[in-house]
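Example record

One chain of 270 residues, shown exactly as stored in the release files.
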Amino acid sequence: MPIIAKISVQKHNKERYSIFTDSGKGEEYAFSVDEDVLIKHGLKKGMELDDLSLTEILFHDDIRKTYNQAIQYLSHRMRSEKEVRAHLQKKEIAEPVINEAIHRLYQFDFLNDREFATAYLRTQVNTSDKGPSLIRQELKEKGIAGALIDETMAEYAIDAQIEKAIKIGSKFAVKNVRDSSRILKQKLEQLLLRKGYPFSIISIALEEVVVEKQDNAEMEALSYQGEKLRKKHSKLLGYEFRRKIKQGLYQKGFPIDLIDRYLDSIEDED
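Predicted structure tokens for this chain:
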């Protein structure tokens, strides 16, 4: 059996030790271990190492290295258990070693999915315009359990959701002032759905955001869209020209009475 001939601190990592053994052929480097593993197994000069004890030492050292890698990964921001596991699996670390490292992370409170979920929700609410459904889906993708997601999402107050949806809607309405009221309403509803807001919140937001324009504002938007259609169909004449413009404006959500008024006005110009 090999005997430990020398133990020395590594130059570039003072927490790891190089183990040299002598099996009768002279001193040679055998392996390295973390300081905790060195102490745990009582490694010292003159100690004999059989296959079983060597396997156990190296297994515990792999756990320690994996644990340290996880700590470094967690140092940038909070992570869920699923994220940490995925990070370690990419490094092709054996599953039993990952399991032991994960257990230690929980033991020393470096991992806590409940705290992670709460922190993630608060960050998204404070820094993004995501609705509850989208945040819920993201928590699920990060491996948070369903019951814990329900508990966490209860913190996202209805009033806060409504306020955020109205703010999104107001900005959107200003940017899309040249759309018809009907199209604007449809686009805003689709936008809020994509951002993860439920219909109950969307309906309240749509009531608060001014999407139903006064006739003069609607006519202004209609005229803008109408001029684009006139250029597009400029080679058409008479009935066919009027039909194409009318069809195009109707598809853009403008009411028939305003479309007819617009068509009458451009015919008077001609």
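Notes: The chain has 13 helices and three strands.
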